[in-house]
Description:
Blueprint: H1 5-8, H2 10-17, H3 21-33, H4 38-41, E1 43-44, H5 65-78, H6 82-92, H7 103-119, H8 129-143, H9 154-160, E2 170-171, H10 177-183, H11 192-198, H12 211-218, H13 228-251, E3 265-269, E4 277-281, E5 284-293, E6 296-301, E7 311-314, E8 322-328, E9 336-343, E10 351-354, H14 362-383, H15 388-412, H16 424-430, H17 434-445, E11 459-462, E12 465-470, H18 473-479, H19 488-494, E13 498-502, H20 508-533, H21 538-548, H22 550-564, H23 568-584, H24 590-609, H25 627-659, H26 664-683, H27 686-698, H28 706-721
Helix pairs in contact: 5-7, 5-9, 7-8, 8-11, 8-13, 13-15, 14-15, 14-16, 15-18, 16-17, 17-20, 22-23, 23-27
Amino acid sequence: MMPTEESTSPDSRRSDGVKGGGSLSNLIRNHQQNKNFFESLFFKKKRNDDESPSFSPKSIISLSPLANSVVSRCSKILKIPTEDLQHQFEKSVHDNLKQPSNYARNLLEFCSYQALHVVTANPEYLGDNDFRRFTYDMMLAWEAPSAENNPFNMEAERLSSKEVEGEDGWSLFYSSTTSMAVQVDEKQTVGSEAFARIAPGCAVIADVITVQNLFDALTNASEHRLHFLIYDKYLRMLEKVIKAVKIATGLQTASSLQLAKGEIILEVDGTVPTQPVLQHIGMSAWPGRLTLTTHALYFESLGVGLYEKALRYDLATDLKQIIRPELTGPLGARLFDKAVMYKSTSISEPVNMEFPEFKGNSRRDYWLDICLEILYAHKFIRKYNLKGIQQSEAIARAILGIFRYRAVREAFRISSSKYKSLLCFNLAESLPEGDKILETLSSRLGLLSSTSLHNKDAIGTSNGKSSIKLPTSLLSLRRFKIIINEQSEADDQSIEPVGDVFVGEVNPLEMAVRQGKDNIGRAEAARATVDQVKVEGIDMNVAVMKELLYPLIESYNRLQQLISWRDPWKSTVFVVLVSYAIVRGWIRYAIPSLFVFISVVMLGRKLVNKGREIEALKIIMPPNKNPVEQLLILQESIAQVETHIQTANVILLKIRAIIFAALPQATDRICLLMALMALILVFVPSKYLILMAFLEAFTRENPLRRDSTEKWERRLKEWWFRIPAAPVQLIRVDDKKRK
Length: 739
């Protein structure tokens, strides 16, 4: 048997002579013995001399040294020789995936996905350092998979092709600490494509829909290259989050919350006195504890040392819920932008949950995002009528998204921004054409099956594409013991994994997200132009509007000149031409002709400009006004609006009085006039009615009709003023808001 590096290295020889070295060895040995699953999977006892060494992984010529190292470790995990893995790959995938240009990368993906299918069967894999380094090596190898790529280090190839045995055996992930240091170099980083191809292979680490946003969040401060230390910290925090949720799930039976069956606690806030949660209802505010579950929000008011009975705000049932950011403050004052407003048909008035903090509103934004994620998840379930395992899988996707968001937030203090959401349902609601993402997701969930008890193969096909069937989000949560039911173990065996990743192919969900993000660029560019042209001040905005409406204002002024008969010759010609057009029936072509004229002008502008930028609109700035003057202008504008509303109310009340015959004489005249108009509309052709209306409107200011027009207008106003308004009674409702 070949001597191992651990037994011959100088470090090993020096450690034997150091005082306390035996205690350190015992500590390491005890730590390794505590790994219940990885002790049997990742470490193997020493083989006997008579045991056949034919299983020793062999290098594949077309792969790079690091890719060979990853494939060798995959073969050990799967207990399949590398030659058989390569044969399975060539047998199961299409010919276009076996081209020399992409053969190495597709083979690496095939082996990596199958290894992840086995490794993630145990709930403790996130806590294993070897797993984190192994998956990171997959990403590094994905970027340099073929033998033509520049190898990271020739030492990796030498160490990956032989077994290095220690005192307790050898690791399926790494042969030795030397190999580990070679393969995970501090100078090596991972790009977005490699992360997006490997990370979704584990449903807990990343989701296909939000994987790019997750990568951007993790690499925000590292020039969009993922370092192993960042990746390792993210997975460690993700493990802590899952453990915290498991503890909350285990204690929910002792909680005062009366949770429904299958309802899981996801987040709790307000338990620390320095970070309370305030519930605002009307003018009142009270501190307490806020809890988010998979189906509702619960608020427990803080009493005398104890929490009162929780108020439940439903998120699962269709109650026309509205959740949005809101301003709150003492005695109902709108001062602080740190609250989440919940409104539904089940409550009489909106409820505001305030999250006080000294700087910013990241705490509020976090709760807003996770509450909306649960709300959107149930909205998605109702829209596509998901039942059973499909419904549970949709909720599980939302749960894992919240776990990832919470881990990134707590590890790196990153807050999700618009179009960069780490939550899949939030992202689908934010992106243009996000409904296509949800439609694709519903079709993927339709492939879930809970009846295949005997299909244990990780290789499958979907829509003619070669896919690897990996554990779903629901199955991952059940393995973590977060979702527990009476038949959880049987369900874990019966749920058939779905091919959510495709070897060498883009996932349909990822394709839908890319199409939505392509439209973001145009939308953001347009939004940037909008932000540039916004001006401050009422007078300045009025000046801009007048300049923009100049063509319409000028047309209206010229029409007024024709109506006023200041130039009788022009007015006469206009009336004759329009009357002739009405009689001949040409007036119906007026609006279509206007549309055609505008289209021709636009096309002409396009040909003349030839892609040049549009000229800036020149605005003459009005005289500057101080804030007090602007407030006075605003007050006058509000007073004018109030006057117009009062006038409209008076008109409506007088019409009400006429309808209910408050003035019998006026009612008789109106009834007679309406009957006459009905007869005219029945027997007179419409074109003559239009002609009569046009002549009436455009000949009022004619010198021949001016005196009679003024006389009839005076009589009409006098008759209108004599009509009384219908009475109005104001009833004050008793204010029964809780103090």
